[in-house]
Amino acid sequence: MQDNIISTITPPEYRERKTWTQREKTLAVVLGLVVLLVFYITLDANKYRAEVRVVEGSGRVGVNPTTELLDFGDLSRGTSAVRRISISNNTGIPMWIAVVRVGSITDLMNPDKNYFILPARTQESIIFTTYMPASGEVGALYTGRVFVFRIPLPGA
Amino acid sequence: MFMKKALSIIFEILLYAVIAGGVLWGLPTFLSWKLDTPHPIAGVTSASMWPALRRGDLILIEGVAPSELEEGDIVVWRHEGGFTIHRVVALNQKTLVTKGDGNFDEDKPVRYEDIVGRAVEMRGKPFRIPYLGFVTITVQKHINY
Questions:
Q1: pLDDT tens per residue across span A36-52
Q2: If you measure CA to CA, which chain A residue comes closest to B50?
Q3: pLDDT for res B100
Q4: What residues pair up with A109 in beta bridges, in sequence order?
Q5: Do β-strands B74-79 and B82-91 pair in parallel, antiparallel, or remain unpaired?
Q6: Model pLDDT, residue A9
Q7: Which strand ranges, in their side-by-side order, compose the sheet holding A109-111?
C-alpha cells in the first residue's frame, strides 16, 4: 500500500519572513520609545479641574481660592477673576511647557503664557484669567480641565 | 520594468497633486459660486460671539441682499481693520447695528454696502466646524506676513 504524500506550496512571503529584519527591529524600538515617552509625559502632567459659576448682578466676584483647583468662584457678567498656578522644573533638563484646556470653560479662561521653555532648576507661575462675557448664562456652571504638559528638551 | 515603475510613481504623484489642488483651489471656488460671495470661508479669531461661535471655528458665509437681512442674523462686514462677524440687533434705513453676543456694547453702525455676507445656518444654529478655523487663521497669518 502506498503512503499518501501531501505536498504543500508555501507562498514566498511566508517562507522568507521567519524573523524580523533589522529595519523592523529598529522601527519597533523607536515606536516603543515614543510610546514610553508619551506615557511618561502624560503621567507627569499637572492636572487641574477648573470651574466658574455665573451669578446675577454686576461687579460680583466670589472668592474660592484653593491650590488644587482652578476655582474662579462666582462671577457676574463683565467681571473677571485671576488664579495662579506654579510649575517647577527640578531636573537638569529644560522643559517645554504646553497648557491644554478642555471643557466649557475653555473659551472663558486664558493663561498669560503658553508653549514656552522652562529652564532647568527653575520655577514659573502661570496666571489664568477668566472673564465672564455678556452672553454668560446666569446660574450656569462652566467647568473644564487644565493639563500642564512638561516635555523634556535636552540641549534647548 | 524600471520605466513602468517610474511612470506609475509619476502618475500617482500627479494624481495626488490634482486631488490636493482640487481641494485647495476647487472647494473655495465652488463655495464662492454656490454661496454667492467672494469670501465663503472664515475662521473665528475671537470669543466675542461666544457661545454661538467659538475661537477657532470654521464657518461658511453666504451672500445676502440687504432686503433679506433680519434682526438676529449673524453677519460679516468689512472695515479698515479687516472683517468682523457679529449679530444684527437693529436694521435702519441706511445702516444696520450689530453687537457681539459676548459684548456689552453695540458696534458702530455698519453700512449695507460693507456687508460681505451672512453666516450659513443649519437647524437654526450657525454652521461651524470646531478647530478647523485655526488652519485658515494660520494660513492667512503667514500669507499676510
A1: 999 999 998 999 999 99
A2: A135
A3: 95
A4: A130
A5: antiparallel
A6: 62
A7: A80-89, A122-131, A109-111
**HSE-up of residue B58 (Cα within 13 Å, Cβ side):** 13
Q: How far is A133 from chain B (nearest CA, A)?
A: 5
Under an 8 A CB cutoff, do A135 and B51 touch?
yes
Q: Are strands A69-76 and A46-55 parallel, antiparallel or unpaired?
A: parallel
CA distance B52 to B30: 26
CATH among 1.10.3470, 1.25.40, 1.10.8, 2.60.40 for A46-152: 2.60.40
CB of B103 within 8 Å of any CB in chain A? yes
pLDDT category of residue A13 using cuts at 50, 70 and 90: low
CA distance B106 to chain A (A): 12
Q: The complex's ipTM?
A: 0.72
Answer whether A133 sits within 8 Å of B47, measured CB to CB.
Answer: yes
Average of pLDDT values for B64-75?
94
| Digit-coded pLDDT (tens) for B41-57 | 989 988 899 999 999 99
> Are the beta carbons of A107 and B101 separated by less than 8 Å?
no
Point out the catalytic residue in the list B57, B73, B86, B107. Answer: B86
Q: Which three cell numbers stand for residue A40?
A: 511618561
Domain B41-144 has CATH 2.60.40.10: no
pLDDT for B15-41, tens place per residue? 999 998 888 888 888 888 888 888 899
Of A85, A87, A75, nearest in space to A122 by CA: A87
Mean pLDDT (whole number) for A55-79? 77
Is B48 assigned a catalytic role?
yes
Q: Where are the domains of chain B?
A: 1-35, 41-144
Q: Does the reported pTM lie above 0.80?
A: no
What residue ranges do the domains of chain A occupy?
A: 46-152
